[in-house]
Amino acid sequence: MAVARGKGLRAILSSALLTLPALAFVLALCVYLVHGWNWKSHAALTALFTTTTAGYFFTVWITHLTFLSGTADRSAVVAQNSYGLNTLSLYVVGVMLSALGAMNDITVTQASVVETVADSQPSLPFRRLYALNMQVGGDHVGSMVTVLVLGYAAGALPLTLLLRADQSTPLWVTLNGEAMFAELAGLLIALIMMLIAVSLSTVLAAWWLGQRRNRQRLPEGDPDSRPVMLQV
């Protein structure tokens, strides 16, 4: 059992070498095509890829810690038998994809909010700018939490009805089974990733905007920005 789990874990980690660059390419394509090549897209994409990478390895650690096999999803088992795919890898990638839609929306929105607040109050320091935008980010996270919970509930509803079709199985056994735990773990991981993405995108956007404004205030080649030599 331990040998099999070790092989499965190595398969997941090796698949990260292919999965993460593919996700990075898809994220860059979506963000830049929709929002253009600008500092807001850079900040959002950096936050997205950083959070996705951290979330990928965190999900791998959770699956190893809780002994998830990924076989609770029958379609994953069929894919494994037909194409030789690893069920745990499919589960990890599925969790990442389920969170990316909400994270993409919230990171770009946070960058836009940072720019709007900074334009309305140019004298705000970095910490104050971050705090004000995180107030908006908190409300946005609350809305996205509802979206994720309803999405996972809709996906788990047929599974719950199927599991409860067998009345001989106690309810606590059903709730503690891998199928139900995998759904709850995926939801929790997606929420954690979204919280990290909001904070990181806000920090990056505020820092990036501050750097851009500093360059605009002291443009290169401006005689007024050069040090003045006093003549004696």
Automatic annotation (TrEMBL):
Acyltransferase keyword on record: no
Transmembrane intervals: 12-34, 43-63, 83-102, 141-164, 184-209
Any one Pfam family match given in the protein's UniProt record, by short name: YibE_F
Keywords (A to Z) from UniProt: Membrane, Plasmid, Transmembrane, Transmembrane helix
Coiled-coil stretches noted in the UniProt entry, renumbered to this chain: none
Listed InterPro entries: YibE_F
Protein name: YibE/F family protein
Native source organism of the sequence: Deinococcus gobiensis (strain DSM 21396 / JCM 16679 / CGMCC 1.7299 / I-0)
